[in-house]
């Protein structure tokens, strides 16, 4: 029997960077997984020797571990039922709404919670199996909040960090969770907890104090260890970013620039192209943006075919009821707008419910005169950072919701409150009408920010915070 490979850096995220997609004829292919977590962590892990523990996106037996671009991918299985209870249920129909301001109601089911515990334990086992002595273990996101304490109980020698890619809710909302104390306890198994915004870190510290009964001071929480001893856990903000250099280079490449021209031509060379790119999620404010656009058409402020709006909406969590409802609403609205304002061969809205390769996204970003990023709540929103990165021509304008993590860094964007439809309409018009010289100045500043704070810098900051997190008493390695 071959010896189990072990790694000094192990990351665990619900999804692997690739999903296995099985065709009806039984053949299988690997596709890139959706979402910002994968975009960011894929570029971080490519430069480092490490392992990635995650779900391969299909139910049943997990594929055998394998190597991909220098990364060791270690699949964790989910049964059909766990997909419903742990993934679609507890992760995406309980936690996701609670952590995003309850934009839709959260559902609470004890069986979902039980499977959340079971699957978290499975992830913890997989991590412990492949973590080398004294390894750094970096756990990601809301699906795996119990894993830090579970790993700590089995492997006191490793250093444990957790990063939350989504917001952490205010204590009043978090308090609704019947399992809130267990979640706090699970997270406090880590040495260091990273959040997108300072407000998220503060929300966690407050929850640990008010609901977990822990002593807190500034960014630190005093937690009880499994042996009854006390440990100090730090919680702070490290906003995530993207691979600026890689995407900038891709956007400047000839094929991408040619493709951008082709796209503009195939849209009928309109004067103005507006663009939205999101997972089809109720957090993204797609309905609000369509409403604002439709009203501007109604008022004759926007007149197709001089203007067109391209909405790319990646399929997401399609079996969850709130996502089904959202899809129906969006598609009905797009149909209504197009029925009223399109001409033959010139739709007022191009709606694309598909995923595209990075090259195509980079080309699309270069076509967009105005990029609409209007979430009602979003941990970061990497699309905003990707858009400015692709604008090496310093053209375009970014309309950005104040409810995104990105807004806390990208102050030169045209800020909007997506709930305020009148204000959103005015911001869309202002983004178009502002003097091009001024817009170039703003775009330059936005690009500088993303260039300086790129994803490698984020990862280095996270790992160095993990490294320097308060030492635990009785650590078995490196004492
Ligand atoms: P979230 O993580 O909530 O999905 P982000 O904006 O942080 O939101 O990240 C989304 C990521 O998915 C970005 O890297 C974006 O380019 C990518 N993406 C979004 N829509 C598509 C699509 N239709 N095809 C390919 N990639 C997409
Ligand atoms: C967000 C979450 C990720 C998640 C992604 C895609 O980025 O923070 O954890 O992987 O959305 O969602 P999905 O449910 O398809 O994994």
From TrEMBL:
Instruction: Tell me the Pfam families matching this sequence.
Output: Glyco_transf_20
What organism does the UniProt record list as the source? Answer: Janibacter terrae
Which protein, by its recorded name, is this?
A: Trehalose-6-phosphate synthase
**Coiled-coil features, chain-numbered ranges:** none
Which PANTHER family does this chain map to? BCDNA.GH08860, TREHALOSE-6-PHOSPHATE SYNTHASE
Family assignment from sequence similarity: Belongs to the glycosyltransferase 20 family.
């Amino acid at each position: 029997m071959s010896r189990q490979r072990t790694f000094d850096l192990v990351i665990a995220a619900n999804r692997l960077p690739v999903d296995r997609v099985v065709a009806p004829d039984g053949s299988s292919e690997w596709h890139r997984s959706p979402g910002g977590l994968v975009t960011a962590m894929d570029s971080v892990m490519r430069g480092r020797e490490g392992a990635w523990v995650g779900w391969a996106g299909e139910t049943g037996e997990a594929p055998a571990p394998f190597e991909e671009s220098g990364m060791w991918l270690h699949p964790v299985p989910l049964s059909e039922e766990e997909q419903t209870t742990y993934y679609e249920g507890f992760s995406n129909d309980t936690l996701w709404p609670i952590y995003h301001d309850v934009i839709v109601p959260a559902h609470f089911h004890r069986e979902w919670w039980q499977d959340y515990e079971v699957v978290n334990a499975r992830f913890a086992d997989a991590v412990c199996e492949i973590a080398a002595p004294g390894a750094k273990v970096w756990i990601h996101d809301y699906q795996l909040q119990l894993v830090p304490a579970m790993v700590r109980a089995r492997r006191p020698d490793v250093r444990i960090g957790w990063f939350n890619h989504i917001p952490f809710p205010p204590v009043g909302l978090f308090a609704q969770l019947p399992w809130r104390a267990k979640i706090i306890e699970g997270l406090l198994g880590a040495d260091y907890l990273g959040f997108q915004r300072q407000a998220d870190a503060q929300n966690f510290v407050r929850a640990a104090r008010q609901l977990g009964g822990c002593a807190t001071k500034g960014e630190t929480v005093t937690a009880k260890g499994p042996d009854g001893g006390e440990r100090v856990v730090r919680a702070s903000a490290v906003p995530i970013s993207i691979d600026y250099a890689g995407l900038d280079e891709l956007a400047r490449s000839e094929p991408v620039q040619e493709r951008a021209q082709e796209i503009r031509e195939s849209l009928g060379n309109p004067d103005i192209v507006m663009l939205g790119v999101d997972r089809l999620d109720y957090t993204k404010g797609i309905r609000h943006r369509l409403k604002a656009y439709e009203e501007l058409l109604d008022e004759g402020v926007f007149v197709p075919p001089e203007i067109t709006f391209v909405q790319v909406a990646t399929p997401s969590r399609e079996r969850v009821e709130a996502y089904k409802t959202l899809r129906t609403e969006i598609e009905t609205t797009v149909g209504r707008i197009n029925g009223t304002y399109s001409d033959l061969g010139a739709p007022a809205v191009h709606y694309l419910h598909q995923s595209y390769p990075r090259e195509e996204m980079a080309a699309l970003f270069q076509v967009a005169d105005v990029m609409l990023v209007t979430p009602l709540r979003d941990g970061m929103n990497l699309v905003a950072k990707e858009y400015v990165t692709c604008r090496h021509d310093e053209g375009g304008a970014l309309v950005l919701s104040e409810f995104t993590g990105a807004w806390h860094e990208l102050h030169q964007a045209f800020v909007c409150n997506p709930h305020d439809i009148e204000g959103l309409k005015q911001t869309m018009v202002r983004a178009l009408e502002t003097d091009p010289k001024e817009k170039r100045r703003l775009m330059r500043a936005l690009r500088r920010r993303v260039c300086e704070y790129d994803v490698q810098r984020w990862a280095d900051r996270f790992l160095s915070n993990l490294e320097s997190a308060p030492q635990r008493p009785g650590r078995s390695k490196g004492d």
